[in-house]
Amino acid sequence: MRINGIEKQTIWLNEDGWSVDIIDQTVLPHKFVVVNLKTLDDAAYAIKAMLVRGAPLIGATAAYGLCLALKNDVSDDAMSKACDYLNEQRPTAVNLRWALSVMTNHLSPLPKEARLEAAYKKAAEIVADDIETCRLIGVHGLELIKDIAAKKSPGETINILTHCNAGWLATTQWGTATSPIYHAAKAGIPVHVWVDETRPRNQGASLTAYELGHEEIPHTIIVDNAGGHLMQHGKVDLCIVGTDRTAANGDVCNKIGTYLKALAAHDNNIPFYVALPSTTIDWTLNNGFDIPIEERGQEEVLQMTGRLSSSEKGEMVTIDIAASGSPAANPAFDVTPAKYVSGLITEKGVVEANSSALAELKTELKNVA
Ligand code: MRU
Predict the structure, then answer these.
(1) What CATH code is assigned to 138-364?
(2) Is the beta carbon of 332 within 6 A of some atom in ligand 1?
(3) pLDDT digits (tens, 9 = 90+) for 284-312
(4) Is the CB of 203 under 6 A from ligand 1?
(5) Does the pTM exceed 0.90?
(6) Each residue of 168-222: pLDDT tens digit?
(7) Is residue 56 within a helix (H) or strand (E), and if so which, with residue range?
(8) Between β-strands 333-336 and 245-247, what pairing exists: parallel, antiparallel or unpaired?
(9) Which entry of 224, 244, 282, 334 is annotated as an active-site residue?
(10) Which CATH number fits domain 2-128: 1.10.3720.10, 3.10.20.590, 1.20.120.420, 3.40.50.620?
């Protein structure tokens, strides 16, 4: 995807050939800062403090974090401790656990002297696979947008609502929820995106709007509570969101507030699709309500960070927005039951959100592997 017309990825190997560069997403859209990760601690901090975020990108960062750990020690013990440490950083997105198990399954049987090089190769493969997976999600999701376009007058705009950032900043390229949108725009279908601001961290207003702007996709930021109203007034044709973990029965766990959008879409007969790489499916869980929900600090609710509009330098500041002394709760994700999901847009095609359709997908994935 492009920033000021230049193609970018969200994570890449530094030119030194071993350290890892990421974009610090905590200061976007106000500053574009590249951070260099040199140690396991750097990678763990980047995940925990959300310099990188979004399920697939968390997984890719963890894979490279393990490479950085192996640079010091390639023993089984060091590898296992590094995985435990990385896994602790964020509990909900299953891609963290998935990426680390792909890495260790590949590395454990290898002789120690071969592990470091193999680790970097595998991490690069995880990134390359994610790019292709997200591209394919876009190809399949485009068909859904085409179907909606076919029911409208020629040239009429398709209005798509999305929540949080399941864009290229959450993956390594394309995004999941945004990939069908980018593919539709490239196919000449007029699209407009309603971008939920996504309190408390504002991933929609800060990140989704930023990337849509750079891709020149028409979009409008709305407060999180506006979606239901827009749906009631015929201003939303389709919702597409991402997921951090999908249970084997089709329940999806995504950024807090997703569930309310699904309820509003259901009440207004608006299709509600969830775009995901199959790596986001937790085959060990048959119920979304067993997914651990991350509780984040109350300061994210009680404060806001942004750029001072009045400052010529545009310096960033954090301000208090709540009554002094009031406590806050900050559950970061919620579960949308499968019954509210119109379909799951995967790299293998659009799949129904239920146990039997997902079981078929699992078989298909096994046959390919
Ligand atoms: O807390 P975040 O910003 O990591 O949450 C991200 C989301 O909820 C995304 O929708 C999800 O990871 C899907 S990313 C393709």
Answers:
(1) 3.40.50.10470
(2) yes
(3) 999 999 999 999 999 999 999 999 987 66
(4) yes
(5) yes
(6) 999 999 999 999 999 999 999 999 999 999 999 999 999 999 999 999 999 999 9
(7) helix 55-70
(8) unpaired
(9) 244
(10) 1.20.120.420
